[in-house]
Amino acid sequence: MQKSIFTKYFSLCATLVFVSITILGTVFLIFASQFFKTDKYRLLESNVKRAAEIIEDYERRGFTLGGDLELGYFKNSLRALSEAIDASVFVTDSTGASLFCTEAPPCFHMEQPVPADIISALAERDSYSELGTLGGFYGDRYYTVAVPVKLGSQDIGYVFASSHASSQQQSFLDEMLKLFLVSAVVVLAVTFVAVYFISLQMVRPLRQMSEAAQKFGRGELDTRLEVTGYDEIGQLAMALNNMAQSLSTLEVTRRSFVANVSHELRTPMTSIAGFVDGILDGTIPPEKQPYYLRIVSDEVKRLSRLVRTMLNLSRLEAGEMQVNRANINIVDIICQTVFSFEQPIEKKRLEIRGLDRGKVMVDADPDLMHQVIYNLTENAVKFANEGGYLAFDFAVAGSRTRISVKNSGSGLSKEEIPKVFDRFYKTDRSRGLDKNGVGLGLYIVRSIVALHGGEIAVRSVEGEYTEFLFTVPSGGEHKTGNFKKN
User: Is the confidence at residue 2, as pLDDT, over 90?
Assistant: First the structure.
């Protein structure tokens, strides 16, 4: 079964906490054991030194180490010391033979001497400590500390203090372990509860995002996520909200695009079907058939233009439009375009301005620039008023050249200006004047200008003029090059 993020995160955190507690407990017990060992040595050492001082004091008073150790007041002092540190204290002579033991008779310390190698080591270092059997002297492990008893500079005997290691250390470690386990259980319980709720809190936004993504997949693009912070989760929520907004806008655009294309295709196809059916069934008399066939031809050409425009638009939006840059004179292209509109210009008696100047070189694709100039000039001629003007202007600023196409006329309203570059957008006035257009010309113009790295804008005053301004890279020395928009 696939684990959820919550299960994985909670299991990982719980495992890490448990392992950390285990490692901490192990280290704690190791240090506790080392502390017990060090403290035990320190306790035994300080007390055997005290015992040695007591014996040395008795020696200085005239008592002998070999004969007077059984005196009551001496035995009582050493046995009190032995009980205070919970250890056996015994005294040997300089050869290691036991002279006195604080344990009740029979004391096994009196039955065998301390190994000679330990006595030698004690004589060399003036002290001895170990955790072991004292060279086989004991049958089990003991903490043992010994110091010499001196008379002047001579060692006349040795004082040993031994404490059984296993029972005392185990008892101490058991108490430490109990204390640690109780603390660990409390810490683990609190930690697991905290991790559970923290994991739940962290996973909840992800679950909400998952549900929102599923809704997006079903087309419910009005769903929005609540952004409660600016961390990675909050940024992801904002990104999903932005994506949903973009998808919603794209969906509206797509529907509008399909509706507009359907409308633009349906109108000429309906006309063509109606006129052809009228010719075939005899509704249209033979003498009027050439007239209606010309209408059919115009509608077919309109469909052809629409399909060609749609293909160009598809290539532009897919980044597949090939740009073949060249150093060209934009004034020549404008002049050629204006000549192609000679008849409508003369019909409207338009004045042409701004073409009486020298070369203006730009670095651009000649065919694509011709399409830009053609679309802008066609619009300018189409919407210019009778007896008005058509003006062109050029301005070079460093590496950019600005070109302006302006016409007198009714202009655009403030509401229309932001929409003129939208796909299939046609103003109410253009629907009456432009029977053949499909509302894609200015959108393609903007795409081509952007493909050249330029910008385009529109300025208009209602009842006076409309002006389109766009920029392209300036030309200089002849330079050519191909690049493909990614």
Answer: no
